[in-house]
């Protein structure tokens, strides 16, 4: 790896005598790690436990993830080990149900981690500003299967008017990507001092935009995948001084190899350097928004109006007289959910949605001022008199166990299904909508019409590769 000379000089100043060890570590193979979804998959996974993550595992070999049906079923997420440290923060500071925002969330690693780590009864809002990446984010959270999730596609500035709405905000901000050099050659090629300057300034704009939406006393988790001080310690110091935040510690063990502050300041930060920790480069700090009693002390400390005042960017609804009456909810839909009384069911055009009642007011608010691309569970699509079950329902942990007949697939059948190929089921298979499973884990729906089964797997999610590797290694 040929590192840019300016990067070498800057990082050597930061690390001092350790720089040679750091540079040598960048030539080593990237460790492979996953985090199982214990809401779906309880089987043990062979590997070395990641000490700061309750279920994260370093794998001995790299599986063939594309050809592992359990990966597509949301049984685990392939996530860099250092990033799993976010769970340590949540387990230490979040004890009761909260409303949390993951602001820069795609592709969804930290969002799925947060959804698993948050106390039951919490709501997670996962946002991504780039449209194509927001679709990937929605896909991964749908596969994860938890209903208390909203996915949005918005600029951070769109959240500014949601005053004091969130108890926790994670800002894994876009950065210069120095921590990804070992696994991404493009990150090395695109690095420059000018880009570092662009990044730390953009990060401050993002933080200023989102700060009003964090409640007083709320927690901000600030993270990057880079090494330089401008995007790391300097920005944390700026948040504390300019936005009025208290920098908080996180308990860690010495043998984890996590490095602290490298710029001579006494506030706690958490650096994952590849010559000390088994993982990629990562930086994290935790800050609490202060409570102010002096009216002049903070620009942002105002009465919470989020739940009754729509954003200035609220969507304009049709005149009441022009509204079309919503279609009635099909009777069979409630039987598809394990605890239907805990959900609000609503037909939107021809799509049947279910959202947890506990967060319905917040969901309604966000739909007035944000671009919501997924919320709760999409139960089905109405075509004529036929309600077609949606893949979101198949993936959901809230689906009723006996809602649909099930057919267990072989490995070869599962791969064919995930390629969206047609299936021929056994003659004894029931007609109509059937849930297909692999190792008793739901993969999705088919409509069995006897001589064949129509494949209802989402076209855009299918396995596109037309070949099978000579050797397939799966998890579990």
Walkthrough of the structure:
The chain is of the alpha+beta class and 476 residues long. Helix content is 23%, strand content 22%. It contains twelve helices and 21 strands. Strands 5, 6, 7, 8, 9, 10, 11, 12 and 15 form a nine-stranded mixed beta sheet that branches. The protein has a four-stranded antiparallel beta sheet with strand order 2-3-1-4, with helices on one face. The protein has a four-stranded antiparallel beta sheet with strand order 13-14-16-17. Strand 19 (432-438) and strand 20 (441-448) form a beta hairpin. It is globular and about 70 Å long.
Task: Name some characteristics of this structure.
21 strands, 9-stranded mixed beta sheet, 476 residues, 4-stranded antiparallel beta sheet, 12 helices, Nuclear Transport Factor 2, Chain: A, alpha+beta
List the helices and strands and how they pair.
Elements: H1 5-15, H2 19-25, E1 33-36, E2 48-49, E3 57-58, H3 69-72, E4 76-78, H4 85-93, E5 99-102, H5 109-117, E6 123-127, H6 131-144, E7 149-152, E8 166-172, H7 185-190, H8 193-210, E9 214-224, H9 233-242, E10 245-248, E11 270-272, E12 282-289, E13 343-348, E14 351-356, H10 360-369, E15 372-375, E16 377-383, E17 386-389, H11 391-395, E18 406-408, H12 411-418, E19 432-438, E20 441-448, E21 453-455
Parallel strand pairs: 5-6, 5-8, 6-7, 8-9, 18-19
Antiparallel strand pairs: 1-3, 1-4, 2-3, 7-15, 9-12, 10-12, 11-12, 13-14, 14-16, 16-17, 19-20, 20-21
Helix pairs in contact: 4-5
